[in-house]
Each structure stands twice: as structure tokens, then as C-alpha cells.
Structures
1.
Amino acid sequence: MPIETPQPEYRQVAAELRLAIRSGEFRPGSQLPSEPELAERFGTTRATINRALSVLRTEGLIKPERGRGTTVNKLPVIRRATIGRQAREAREESGARGAFAAELQRLGLTPRSDVTLGEVSAPAEVAELFEDPDLVLEGATLFARRRVMFAENVPVQLATSYLPLDVASAAQLTQEDTGPGGAYSRLADVGLAPARFRELVRVRTPDDAEARALDLDADHRVYDITRIARTVEDRVIEVNRIVLPAHQWELDTEWEA
Amino acid sequence: MPIETPQPEYRQVAAELRLAIRSGEFRPGSQLPSEPELAERFGTTRATINRALSVLRTEGLIKPERGRGTTVNKLPVIRRATIGRQAREAREESGARGAFAAELQRLGLTPRSDVTLGEVSAPAEVAELFEDPDLVLEGATLFARRRVMFAENVPVQLATSYLPLDVASAAQLTQEDTGPGGAYSRLADVGLAPARFRELVRVRTPDDAEARALDLDADHRVYDITRIARTVEDRVIEVNRIVLPAHQWELDTEWEA
DNA sequence: TCTTATTTGTTCGTATGTATT
DNA sequence: GAATACATACGAACAAATAAG
């Protein structure tokens, strides 16, 4: 009979610190005691404390920084509505530009967004999703709108929208400002309104570029979301690759039977 | 200017081993060399190898076991359809009982499922979702159908379906076998067909019970899905809490604009 | 059943590196 | 430059699970 295995020391310490944070002993935004101090307090060595802290770091609860100390994170969990986020009402909610801004305004957070535009060579896994003989090839040229989105100046989302070149220019999406309602409203304006969507969600570790852009460690987890938008005629009109720090987001889907 | 920081040694080792696995040098189901052997091969110590392996373990790529050695995992990623999984056709697909069996049969995997039935005291976060004055209280009594689901005898899903007592008995869901089409078909039979669904998805570490049931480590990640089903009259008829090992599942959602 | 060897998990002590104050 | 703080690495030891005899 498998008796209760006592948890290893670094997990016990992690659990106690987790409780101390939740109970308010260490408040969001405040500093934890240094590792040597914690080692003293828990009667163990710095190596064990360091391992315990790295558990909480990976969970997104704290942010240890060399030379600076360890801070308790403060951002609340952001809820992302999967369906309806493309509805015009949601996108234009309280004057917000796009679904992201609306999501943050609901939490009282200040959104900001950096956009980079340009033609790119299609990654293989994106190209094949277009199901278009001219585009299936890896290396075909697509128009890309890369966005880095911030909440309170903390990066919380990466999104790269890939469009066929003709679509991008027809819908005037080669400009930075997509106007009220965002890119989907512009596509609708030229008769290319998205009619069907599909999202594939995975969880994985961030690659180097993502970790840098989102200020994550290599052992954090991100949602990797691929969204495919089609017109009524079933033409794939956009592929959007979205990366979200997993500990900062909750996905919310509603539908009718 | 922040020059390229070379990755730490344990990450370099992890990356090389990841490649070696993907390239086929170490095949799914086979054993990795022992830690001392790998330490020799990479010119480092066992401590560093151990840390590198724990990176790959957390990613779900390998399964180190004390005394036994380290095995390369073999289960493919399972795709879970969010919408449509409640459609009768999907549930009854190729004679399968329920959506889970259908998902696995599509991959050629053998499903198995253990069910535990009984009345339980409602967890607070479940009770409040029922929005029913008699049930809102923590500790109200609900009927629970707990399922542990296996693919090739590996546990890959936990699901606990909570129902009000009167609903459970009316729909005959207090019996183990829910018949063709599963529980939702039985609810429909008695005029309580679910009409609207909502799913909230989070990613977190498993608790002790989940880790045991799913054979996971404490630093793995799981999807924590809460599904709420309502009737046409908007009555919450079921709350389903689903736990999936994050590295084994992909979530697939399709919808019309 | 008992013993022994093997394998991974954890902890310690120490040392060094890197970033910040 | 010095002090502080976290990150990584090494070597050693022991614990716990397994396998082989």
C-alpha cells in the first residue's frame, strides 16, 4: 500500500510561500525576503530556497531578478472571449479598437499595442493552412501584421496576422491604423467578411523570441493559438498566430447546442 | 546593448536531447542512457543532466522513473473538439459511447473509462455556478459522476459532472451506464436537453489527487476546464470540471461569425 | 525472502558568474 | 568599486524505487 510520501522540502517551502502570498503576508508588487534570509527562516540552504522560488516563478506568481530581488506579481488574470470577439459590437465596445482593448478595459487596465507591418516569407505551418495552391509552399510571400500588446505596459500578448497580399492591399490592411472595429471590419468593407473561424489551442514553452518579447522565462508556459478565418465561399482569408502567457489568461467560450 | 546570452548548460543539453528524440535517435517507448552515462557523453555532471531531463519531463517528452530509467513517451497529441462534441452524431460516431471514445477512435487508440457515482457535498466554486438559491451554498448536495478516462491504459482525462439531485434521478443518470449518446442524450430524453454551453479554460499545475490519478508530476501542467450546460429556459443543469494533461491535448473550436 | 546493484530524486556545501544597487 | 541578489554548476552523499540474483 503506497503510504503518503512526504513532499520534498523545496515543495513544502513553495507551498508555504504560496499560502503566505495568497494570505496577504506578501502583497502584489512587494519584495520577498532575499534567498539567504528565507533559507534562515525555513532552516534550510539557499539551494533549496532557490528551487522553491523557481517553482513559484514558473507558476507566474513571483518574478525573481538578479541583483534586484524577488517581486510578487500583480497582474490579474485576463479573460479572453473566444466566440463573439469578432462581433462588431464587442470590438467597438466603449470606443475600444479591437477585442483586446475591450477585454482590458473591462478589467480597468490600460491597453497599448505596438504594430509592425510588412511582407514576410510564410512559415511552413502557416502556408499550408491557406489551402491555396499558390500559397501552400513554404516561403510564399504573405503580408504580416505583428502586434505586441501590453496591459499596464507589461507585454501580455503576441499576435501575428498573415494575409494573402491581394487581400491585405484590397482591405487597406497595409496601413497601421485599421480604423474602428479593427481588421475584420475592413475585410467586411470590401466583401471579404470572415464567416467561419477555427481555433487550435496548444500549451507549450515559449521560444527565445517569444520569451524575450513577453518577458518570460524558458520554463513558463504559453497558449499557442492558431486562428483560421474563412469567407462564406470558404476561402482562407487570414491565419492568426497568437501567443499568450498561460498564467495570465483564461479562455472563455460560449455556444448554442 | 544586451548581447546574446548563451543558454545555460542544462538547457543546451535539454535542447540536444530534444533534437535527438525528434530525429529518431531515441524512439518513443525506448530507454534513454542512464544519467551517469549522459553526463559522460555531454562532459558534465549528473546534477546538470538531471536538471536537463527534468525540463524534458515537464514538457511531457520523457518519463524518468527511479530505479527503472528514463523512457521516451509515445502517446500522440489528442485533439478535443470544443463545439460539436455535444452533437448526437459525434457522440454516437462509429458506435462510440460519448465524445471521448470518438476522439480516441479517430486516432486509432483504445479508450477505457472508469466511473464512480455518488452524492457529494458541492465544492464552493461549483455550487455558485448553479445560480440556484437552494444550491448556491457551499456544501449543498449534488449528484456527481466522476470519470477517469484512459487511452491505451494511460490515464488522460478526469471529468466530474455535477448535477442537481432531481435532475440526476429524472434522467436516470444515477446508473453507471448512460446508454447510447451518453448523459446528454438522457437529459434530452426527459426534456432537459442542454441548449447553451460555456467553457472556461485555465492552465495550472495539478493538485496531489490529480497528479496521482493522471500519473503526472507536480510541475506538469493541466488544462482546467469548467463547462456549464443550460437548458432553453436558462437553467444550469450541469457543471462539468475537466482536467487534461496539457502536453497531451489540443483544443479545437469551430464557429460561425 | 533477502541482498545487492542500478537508477533517479533530493539536499547540502561550495564556488563562480552576472545583473543591479 | 563594493556590496547585494539571484542563476548556475560541481561534487558528494543519501534516499527511494526498481531489478536481478
2.
Amino acid sequence: MNAARRGPEPVVRLVLTRERIVHAAVELIERHGVDALSMRAVAAELGVAVMSLYNHVSNKAALLEGVAEYVVAGLDTVPSGTGDWRAEARALVRAFRTAAHEYPHAMRVVLTHSIDSTAASRLAERSLALAAEAGFRGATAVRIVHTLMAYAVGSQLQALWLGQLIDRVSEGPGMARVDPARFPHVVASASALLAHDPEADFEFGLDLLITAIERLVEPVDQST
Amino acid sequence: MNAARRGPEPVVRLVLTRERIVHAAVELIERHGVDALSMRAVAAELGVAVMSLYNHVSNKAALLEGVAEYVVAGLDTVPSGTGDWRAEARALVRAFRTAAHEYPHAMRVVLTHSIDSTAASRLAERSLALAAEAGFRGATAVRIVHTLMAYAVGSQLQALWLGQLIDRVSEGPGMARVDPARFPHVVASASALLAHDPEADFEFGLDLLITAIERLVEPVDQST
DNA sequence: GCTAGGCGACGTACGGTGTACGTAAGACGT
DNA sequence: ACGTCTTACGTACACCGTACGTCGCCTAGC
């Protein structure tokens, strides 16, 4: 009471933790983009002096790594219960896309800054477990994990530059932005590009990969 | 001659062009990393005042976009002449990897900053042409391009965080860095992870995709 | 040959950034 | 009661991107 009237400052000892800092950073990133994130902004968001952050986070890079870890840790990697590794693998790759949908800006940090954390290990563990469930071991398992993750990660980036191409194409059908003489196929595919559904594109590639892996476990010999 | 003795300063009129600036930026990025790139550093590299750069590059962001475009424009997308779309598609995806090998740091800029340039259109054109050659049109062609590009781009990023996992595993077999109780498959795959060959991993996934697409064009009906 | 005009290189300056360092105020074992 | 340790904090500095004004050279028209 008397403490409360002593001033507008928070009287309760405000506990500053790495978690609170990371969380604030994630919120700011989603609100104003990655580039707008500064230590000062994070401090302001928490109502704290800038240098106080450095008692819990050694670096801005470390903070960003924390952000990446936060997002990855939020990936839904729990087995859905069905024993079907195909469905599980699909779910795992989709988890990436879901996270990208929830944290569109922070996902960029994940993709850029390679993380080294328990969260990443969890992801790898889950992937390898699924590979093992499908009957793959050793190098093959690692390669399958690599391929799936590459697709999961890459398809997030595609939204960026494929979107740019679409903008280009849509900038008027007859415009000189895309020279029909030099880029005939692009122009020919204009309608398909404009109508494209990112979700369907993603599922298409995922299907392609899963069935390809599926055929790998039980190779069907078939000539011509 | 007399001009030469007038001073150590370059007497020939130093022509500053956007190309020279971008090129210097690429070199600096490869030398000291992306984060170390500053306008001042670029200017120093060219023996020029900082603000002179802004006569040719409106922005630092624009400069980075130029860097990305430079790398993408350097991708070897010329048809190899063989009429085999499979080989051509492989070559196209590999071109990404080759560029990542040549410009490891600058490639990060490419992946991060979505580019809007003629170079990107060239890439899309080539991809769509290959898809058409394989017999795909419209939405399917776009989706195949999406999938291939996602893999091409994503496998570059994999090197980053998969490498981190390996570091973690290799940090002593019995160390507590990777808890065998929580991550049994990771530990079990330790040897495979340590021995893994990024190039082979890449080719594995590429093969998987190409053959999957191949089967798509001539679907073999086969039940059970 | 001379001059008007414009373009491009440059210097200065400002607001903002990450963070090294020193300080001080509370928590706590003795 | 008193050291000690943790931790929030303020100051200061080097560096960043870039807006703006200046000024010298290069060229066009006579």
C-alpha cells in the first residue's frame, strides 16, 4: 500500500529471467519484424534497463538463438499414437509449416541462425525414430531425415521468392516486367502461378517425398 | 607520368558503378561474413568515401539484394544439351549447391532476402521449361518447381543445423550433452551422423525427388 | 577557348545500435 | 551487525546507416 504510493515503479521485485526476455523478443519480432528488434526495445517492453538483459543473455546473437530455440521447442513433435510412420512423418513436417504460420517472422530467425539446443535434438530424435520405425537404419536413416528436413525448411523459404515472382507476373499481363520472348514458360504458367495455393504446393511435395520413401522400404522391381 | 608523381592517389578517374560496389560487397562478405559487412567497409575496400556509394545504391538493403542477385545470376542454368529432363533437373538443383560452395556466406543472403530480379525469373523459366519437357503443365508444373526449389534451398540450410547436431554428438561419446535416455536414436545413429557425407546426403534426396517425379509422369498402377 | 550547367564524389552530422565497465542496492549466511 | 554475492542499473564509447550540403570535374553550346 504505502509501497504502492511510493511511486509508479513496480514495487514487487521484478524477476528478470532468460525466458521472459526471450518471450518478449519473440513478441516484438512478430509485432515489428526481425530487423526492428533491438536490445533497447526488448528492455523497454519489459520495463527494464537495457544492461539488465545482459545478466541473463550474453549477447544479442544469444538472444536470437533463444528465439529460434523457443520456436523449435514449440513444434508439435509428439507421436499421434497411430503406428503409421507415414502419417507421423507427414505430421512432423507439417509441424514446421504450422509454426511458420504462427510465428512468421520468428521463423526467419530459425532458418537463418542454426541452433544448437535440446529442442533441435528432440526434433532429430523424433525424425530418426520415425526412420527406424519405417525400417531404415544408419546412413540411410540420416539421409532420409536430411531430405525431409531440407524440404520442411526449404518450403518455408519458397513462400518468399516464389511470392516475388508472382508479384512480378501479376503486375499486368501484358506488361514488360516479364518478357514473353525470354521467359515464355513463365508467361505461359502465369495463370497457374497466380492461382497457386501454397498449402496445396506444400502437400504435393510432401506427398511426393513420403511415397518415394515408402517405395524405398519395399522396392518394387519393375522393368519397363 | 607527371600525373603519376602528383601523388599516391589513383589518378585515373575511378569509375564507381553499381556492379563494382556489389562485387566488392560479395568479396567482403565471403572474407569476413555477412554481419561484418558495412557500407563503410565497402567504401574502404573500393578506396572511396562512404556516401559515394549512395549514388549507385539507394540502400544497404538494396545492396544486399544486389548481392543476392549476383549469386543467383551466377547459377549455371544453361541446358547441357542432352534432351534428358532428369539430368537437366539434377544439374539445375546441383547448381544451387555449387554456388553455395563457391559463395558460402553470400548464399545466406540469397536465402534470407527474397530477391526480385531478372535472375530469379531466369531460374523460374528454366525450371518451368524442364517441367514442361517432362510433360507437366499448369499447376502441377508449378508444384514440381516449388518442390525442387524447396529441396535445393533447404538442403543448403541443413548443413548448418545438422552440423550443429553432429558437433553435439561428437563432443564425447559418453558425455551428457546428448542424453541416451531421452535421445536413444540420436545416440544410436551417432556413428552414422559422424560419418555422414553431406554430398551423398544431398544426392540421395535429389535422387529420391527426381525418381518420384519420374514415376509421376508415367504412373505405374500397382496394387499391393 | 570560354562559360553554364549538371553529375557524381565527398565531408559533416545525427540518431540509433550493441555492449564494456563501474556502481550501488537488496538478499543472505554467519 | 556485518561482509559477500547477486543483479539491476547508468554512463560511455565505438560503430552503424544515411540525410543533406558542398564542390570540383566533365561536357554542351557558343
